[in-house]
Predict the structure.
Amino acid sequence: MVDLGISARSKVAYWGVFAALALALSFAESWVAPLLQLPLGVKPGLSNIAVMLAAGVLGLPAGLAVALAKALFAGFTRGLTALLLSGAGGLCSALLVGLLLRRGHRQAQKQTKTGVTATGVGILGGVTHNLAQLALAALLTQTPGVFWLLPQMIVCGVIAGAVTGTLAGRIRILLHQA
Amino acid sequence: MKRGDICIALLLLAVAAAVLLLRPQGKPVVYVNGQRITASTEINGVVIELQNGKARVQSSPCRDQICVHAGWLERPGDVAVCLPQRVSVEIRSGKSAIDAVAY
């Protein structure tokens, strides 16, 4: 966790800010995605920027809470299947990203260089997100053959995760300067 | 982007490539929700068309239509999933395309 000089009281407000940011990004993505000419069903996952920021700035519980808010929003707007998919992908990736950032921060304090930046954490988060969704799809349809989609899911996770991770890293630097 | 990031990306892409190489070979056999089918069928409102050993989701009442856009499935390992309707269409490998191998 990083000390931004935030009091315990305003910390609660920051949880809300990141949750709101996640929902706004989910909404904005529905406009941006068609412009990118992505294959059907492939999304950049911009709202995960908010999850990563919450996990990095406020800690793991905040990251999980924002992922949960995102899943509930998907559930209200697009139904039960969307809620389950968003929840499985979001919570698993938030958990991993939160743990990695906590560990990364400890190492940064000891001034050891792992050579892994927010981009790498984003990639791992993106791939975890897609793997969790694939596992859920296999479970819901009782079809292990779904795992043959693994290569596409990994490639998409690497690209989307690199983009969102890099953006989250840049924004976090700006937050520290503010 | 540092060296560690690039290593992570390359490692994951290598796993993706390995899975591609592991795809089964052989005669295509169509399965819907784990059941073998030999003719066009309908399940949970999803219409599945069979033609010359190929299969596709012809229509589905779902919102996103990802299953329909998956198009024709012909090789073992090809999968189309409609999660809202809980339907999967997959091509598995039946009897090997090679009848026997003699040494």
User: Anything to note?
Assistant: Residues 3-22 of chain B form the longest helix (20 residues). Chain B touches chain A at residues 1-5, 7-9, 12-13, 15-17, 19-20, 23, 31, 33-34, 63-66, 69, 77-79, 81, 83-84, 86-88, 90, 92 (CB under 8 Å). Helices of chain B lie at 3-22, 66-69.
